[in-house]
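Lab notebook, bench 4. Still working through the backlog of constructs that have no structural model yet. Next entry is a single chain of 461 residues. Request: give me the structure tokens for it.
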Amino acid sequence: MAQSDIQLTDLKCPNCGSPINLPDGADVIHCNACGSNIHVTRRNVMNQAVSADGTTPVVDKYTHQTIAHVKVCDGWRLLPGQLSYENPSYTYPMKVHATLMGPNGALLMYAPGESFSQVGSFFQDKLPNDPFVTYRDFVAPAAYLDQFANAMFSSRANSIKLVGVAEMPVRGGVDRQVFTQRLQTQLQQECVRNSAHGVTAVADGVFFDAPCRVYEVSMKDGSLIRFAIAAHIEGRKSHVSAPGVMMSPFGLLGGLLGSAFGGGGFGGLGGSDTPDKSGTGFGQLASTGVLDWGSRHLFMLQAPADSFDEAWANGYVDLCSSFYLDQSIVQQITDYQQQIIRAKQQETDQAINAMNQQFQAMQAANAARQAAFDRQLDSWWANSNAHHAQVMSSSSSSSYSAADKWSEAIRGVNTYMRPDGSEVELSVGSDRGWISQGGTVIGTSGSFEPGADWTELDRKR
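Model written out:
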């Protein structure tokens, strides 16, 4: 604010009119002339609404960039915000934090939330080392908020207990249909993007809730406060299907597809379903399932127990109802997300191309081995037939049957008669011979019969 915008006003006691001083930070002023105590309500001129919607810009304390907007009520002071790049994720590559201070030491706080992925048993040993992904099983919204609250006060409180449950206090209520439709659209777009390399990603469902929970906290310094936390809890599930392979829920996140291909593809799938541990039914996954979930828009209120209700009504509701990220920040987040997705897609393509090259090399090696085997087999049959002809030519007609059987025994074959009278030899590993209508001859063992289209051959006696 420009220096010319600052206005100084002489303060006088409202009871006797005597001049009084306003010490920094004081909420009560004592008039030395008449002895009156005057309660002071402070307003920061920086909180004057400058946006058309009545909100005040949240400015980053380091870059002085506008990062968000929020309505600031009388008696509350908006502190400089913070734009952080620590512990980035796909959902939150950059994070916005905001804080407001109110009467009696009350605090309003905004945090962006957290994001997690839960995977099925097939991917447990294929998880990539991805700094953008935190793996955690889906939990019920109430349990998530309880864990968050306990983590916040674990080192500062003697005890914490739940004293209230509500929906996020947004003016007009939370429009669940709008948020659910947004999640469904996002999931469909992800499935289209992730369908590649012979794998089809299919949407499996979304989850949305907007709970609020209130706790009474006994602090180690002897004070008693109340703490409220509200959040959007969101989840998206999808599954993939591949030709000739039975697949289960799966969502492409963190290069899992590339990791799966790099580990040998989708062959040999198995494993039982991952049971739902959340009690909601949404956390159940099949062996190849992936569930992307997390919290969005964490709104918190901390206030002395005796003034909590006033802080809720005159500050917390406005925070939950009016806070939104600046358009420039939304665009930066979107740009970072697209960069991450492109980088991950490139890694996936590289992994799949490497697998294809290995597969082609393996095919070439197999073809070379098959050709060598065929040459050896042809040579063996040629030598065997020559030996058989020599035995037959040197044997008298009266001893032909014995010589024929002796030759068969040496070569490990049995001779069968085709319907047209010609002979065919099959390995002694088969005890029955069959011929199809097309003339194909096969051998079988035991009681196996190939079907009605096959005719059994007679053994030459």
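Notes after review: The helical segments are 141-153, 176-194, 256-262, 308-322, 327-393, 400-411. The two ends are 113 Å apart (CA to CA). Flag for follow-up if needed.
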